[in-house]
Amino acid sequence: AEAYSRAAELFNEEYAYFSSFSTEWLEHSKRYVEDMTVRFRLGSSSTVVEVAANDGYLLQYVKEKSIGCYGIEPTASTANAARQKGIEIVQDFLSTSLAQQLRSQGKTADLVVANNVLAHVPDINDFSNACRLLMKPNGVFTCEFPHLMNLISQHQFDTIYHEHYSYLSATSVARLGKMHGLNLFRVEQLKIHGGSNRYWLKKLDLDINTESSVEKIIHLENQSGLFNPQEWDQFSSKVSKILADFLEWLRDDQVSERRIFGYGAAAKASTLLNSTEIAPNLVKAIADLSLEKQRRFMPPHGIRIISPEELFLEKPTDVIIFPWNKKCAFCWYCHSFIYVYFVYNFKCIRRYLKYN
């Protein structure tokens, strides 16, 4: 109960992350629905349940196909946005208790979807058990999120932030599944979000072949040194060096009259900025497409969040792209000569761009 109370503080009625503001994520989700519809022959008699349905970014495509669906979403702001799209939402945190209640109402599913949520749940065992309870006897559970191996190998330290309770590998997903009566039978490696995995699970009592992709990714994790403490020590040292280089760039006195701004008021930005001892007003403002974030402020120095249109009225000399995994979204707004500083895989790249 204490863990869920803490989660309720994070995912409250003012939660400002709306998935539909990312066109890349929408396209990814639409492809997923197309694939699942064909693969599992989903139709009007089928049911799809998405856990952490957010603003209906994915279920809108399920609904378009006249496939039965509903979402489970605890945050009022995003739940209301989903309802405005005509999507049924159970506004609560998924737990074993809630899953049993839904099961008793006949609301089990052919497909249970949980994208970028497993790392966010305070009780991962209770959550996994709840997902199994939501599945029909022959149902499928898919979940996807950034791969822990990429976090280490590509120095993605900014994916470590306050909303995450755990960071998962394929090895841990396989073990977690077995603990709760689920068999990991397929793993897809995706490019989305800087390198994610999609995990496919079915109930253990089903006669289903485990694909070679599972053994392959688990072998790769072991070979990579992911479970070697020395790799983690080296990761810490490399992150410290990256932060020092970034801070040196921010403090570059050789460039006169610099006006440094940011793009993307994401959690990644918060982690990066709070990990460096930046002086107040060094980053003038951060632009973000989300209306929910504009007119608010970013830590650690209350950096104001503005619209992309306002960004260019400010005439920046340098723009830091904080959500490096979505860097292309910025290009829509470039219309003058500026320096764009990509923190991409934390190899700092400074580019001089002009977009018409």
What does this 3D model show about the protein?
This protein has 356 residues and is α/β, with parallel strands linked by helices. The protein has helices at residues 2-10, 23-39, 59-64, 76-83, 96-104, 124-134, 148-153, 170-179, 212-224, 229-250, 267-274, 308-313; strands spanning 47-51, 68-72, 89-90, 109-115, 135-146, 182-190, 196-203, 260-263, 283-287, 297-298, 303-306, 318-321, 338-344, 347-353. The strands form two sheets. Strands 3-2-1-4-5-7-6 form a seven-stranded mixed beta sheet. It has a seven-stranded mixed beta sheet with strand order 10-11-9-8-12-13-14. Helix 6 links the parallel strand 4 and strand 5 (135-146). The N and C termini lie far apart (54 Å). Residues 327-339 and 343-356 have low confidence and may be disordered.
Mean of residue pLDDT values:
86
- H-E order: HHEHEHEHEHEHHEEHHEHEEEHEEE
The largest pleated sheet is described as: 7 strands, mixed
How many helices does DSSP assign? 12
**Spatial sequence of strands, sheet with the most strands:** 3-2-1-4-5-7-6
Give the uncertain stretches in residue-range form.
Answer: 327-339, 343-356
Helix share, percent: 25-40%
